[in-house]
Amino acid sequence: MNLHNVTLRQLRALQAVIRTGSVTRAAVELHVTPSAVTMQLQQLQHLAGQPLLERHGNETVATDAGREILTAAERIEAAIADCSAMLSSLAGAEKGTVSIGVVSTAKYFAPQALAAFRRLHPGISLRLTVGNRAEILKGLQHFAIDVAIMGRPPLELDVEAEVIGDHPHLIVAPPDHPLAGQRDIPARLLAEETFLVREPGSGTRGLMERFFAKMRIDPPIAMQIDSNETIKQAVIACLGISFISGHTVGAELADGRMVALDVKGLPIVRQWYVVHLAQRRPVPAVRAIIDFLLERGGSFLPSIAATDAVDRPGHARPRQ
Fold first, then answer.
1. HTH lysR-type domain spans which residues (predicted)?
2. Which of 18, 57, 177, 218 has its CA 20 to 30 A from that of 141?
């Protein structure tokens, strides 16, 4: 087993086959013939000394060895991209492309922040990915995302994370809900309420579940929805109540289409973070956007009143 003579063409052939699920589709993506892809795979497999691919039904998937080489290939591609960006900066040009991952809840402020950044740095291109927490973490892990905007930094990845600003979470209901207008509502009264919740893998869903466990309640779930916008419309339509990010409901609270329930222990105020892999030194373009988010990112956060909170580092803002 000796990978010292491995080539980028071999690694990219493996990546394409795993990504597309077949040699034929990989050949189309790489603009070569299927036989050329097969040859590169055979050479790579000879260097590895063991099978890299196997058939599962109609799909070609990676073996354990194939996944190890795929991870190495992703690191190599990231290192080449970082080197290219660094060379551009050494040439005195402020340019490059930054891949930014944004958890779906952050889409209520991140686009405005990124637009402001682009006005200051027109030479830097941004590639935006929006997804739930699990999807954004996967992108970071596989070097598809340079920097992420998210809540609680992951423990399962070695990352550097810095705070952008506070992020309150609360429970919202229709304006005519029986608990609307009541003060210091005991959490036990939520046990019989019908909840509309985000999907597993969502940071909001995880925080809600930890809050319920802390309060020793297990309310019934009426509907699981992978969109904050749909959840808001469902609450307004009186289909249930929801534990949700305060930054997603600012407009609806302001115009009275829904209300925040004054539940004891809420809102929970977490933080927004800008996150990148610790093993990747930020190239100048990435460093520029990190610095911008740290210096000005908080100014783009929606204004939501917050009370004393639980289950968070730092401090809560007072009720306004």
1. 6-63
2. 57
Cα angle vertex 16, ends 200, 36, to 5°? 165
Distance CA 214, CA 210 (A): 6
Instruction: Count CB neighbours of 223 within 10 A.
Output: 14
Q: Pairing relation of β-strands 259-260 and 159-173?
A: antiparallel
Question: What confidence tens digit (pLDDT) does each residue in 123-177 have?
Answer: 899 999 999 999 999 999 999 999 999 999 999 999 999 999 999 999 999 999 9
Give CA–CA dist 274/292, Å, rounded.
10
Quote the tokens at residue 267: 């809102």
User: Would you state the CATH architecture of domain 96-165+272-300?
Assistant: 3-Layer(aba) Sandwich (3.40)
The top-level CATH class assigned to 3-74 is: mainly alpha
Strands (E), 145-216: 147-150, 159-173, 195-197
For the stretch 183-205, pLDDT in tens is 999 999 999 899 999 999 999 99
Q: Where are the domains of the chain?
A: 3-74, 96-165+272-300, 167-270
Separation of alpha carbons 118 and 3, rounded Å: 41
Is residue 129 exposed (0-12), middle (13-18) or buried (19+ Cβ within 10 Å)?
A: middle
Q: State the fold for domain 167-270.
A: D-Maltodextrin-Binding Protein; domain 2 (3.40.190)
Using DSSP's 3-state secondary structure scheme, residue 304 falls into coil
d(CA 180, CA 182): 6
